[in-house]
């Protein structure tokens, strides 16, 4: 039964990691290089992430500077950023690309907060789905006479404790991101 708990914890950990990855890509009015993680540039026919083609720096709180190692790729990077529709227009000066993040309006902040809450709820649902699958596995073990009824009850109780812990962690991550958005 310990393998069930280990697999469950691993899957729930993946849910939290996915949530944190999603939140890192949320444009919060501050320059965050993670916003470019999903931007792929057509580099000689191969889709390549921007961070593998250029140095990305944050010289100011609301400015990202992308300096390609090969300046001939500048146009392709600019095009890929426009196609990715991250909500920021790149400025190309022939050597680097600048992404200037505008100040967030109150309305946009509230919209981001709702989106973050929604993603937090989706993470909780994913965690509960993992619990459901593990519960089914424990019930199957009982049905196949691999464990006793007492073991089943203890396993279900421990599973609920694990689930409650991961739900709490997802709530903390969500609340932290909401506060970050509202404090900008």
Explain this structure to me?
The protein is an alpha+beta fold. It contains four helices and six strands, in the order αββββαββαα. It has helices at about 1-25, 75-85, 105-145, 150-184; strands at about 40-45, 45-50, 55-60, 65-70, 90, 95-100. A four-stranded antiparallel beta sheet has the order 3-4-6-5, covered by helices on one side. β3 (about 55-60) and β4 (about 65-70) form a beta hairpin. α1 (about 1-25) packs antiparallel against α3 (about 105-145) and α3 packs antiparallel against α4 (about 150-184). The longest helix has about 40 residues, at about 105-145. The mean pLDDT is about 90.
Secondary structure elements and pairings:
Elements: H1 2-24, E1 40-43, E2 46-49, E3 54-60, E4 63-68, H2 74-84, E5 90-92, E6 97-100, H3 106-143, H4 149-183
Antiparallel strand pairs: 1-2, 3-4, 4-6, 5-6
Helix pairs in contact: 1-3, 1-4, 3-4
Number of helices: 4
Percent in strands? 15-25%
Large-scale geometry: elongated
Walk across the major sheet and give the strand order.
3-4-6-5
Major sheet details: 4 strands, antiparallel
Distance between the termini: 46 Å
Kindly list the characteristics that best describe this protein:
elongated; alpha+beta; four-stranded antiparallel β-sheet; 6 strands; two-stranded antiparallel sheet; 184 residues
In short:
It contains four helices and six strands. The protein is of the alpha+beta class. Strand 5 and strand 6 (97-100) form a beta hairpin.
């Amino acid at each position: 039964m310990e393998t069930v708990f280990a697999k469950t914890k691993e899957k729930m950990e993946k849910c939290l990691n996915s949530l944190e990855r999603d939140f890192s890509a949320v444009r919060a009015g501050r320059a965050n290089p993670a916003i470019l993680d999903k931007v792929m540039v057509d580099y000689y026919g191969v889709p390549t992430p921007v961070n593998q083609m250029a140095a990305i720096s944050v010289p100011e709180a609301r400015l990202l500077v992308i300096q390609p190692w090969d300046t001939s790729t500048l146009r392709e990077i600019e095009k890929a950023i426009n196609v990715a529709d991250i909500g920021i227009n790149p400025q190309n000066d022939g050597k680097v690309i600048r992404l200037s993040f505008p100040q967030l309006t109150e309305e946009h902040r509230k919209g981001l907060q709702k989106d973050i809450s929604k993603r937090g709820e989706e993470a909780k649902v994913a965690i509960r789905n993992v619990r459901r699958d593990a519960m089914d596995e424990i019930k199957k073990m009982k049905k196949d006479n691999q464990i006793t009824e007492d073991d089943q009850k203890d396993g279900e109780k421990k599973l609920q404790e694990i689930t409650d812990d991961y739900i709490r962690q997802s709530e903390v991550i969500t609340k932290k991101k909401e506060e970050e958005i509202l404090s900008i």
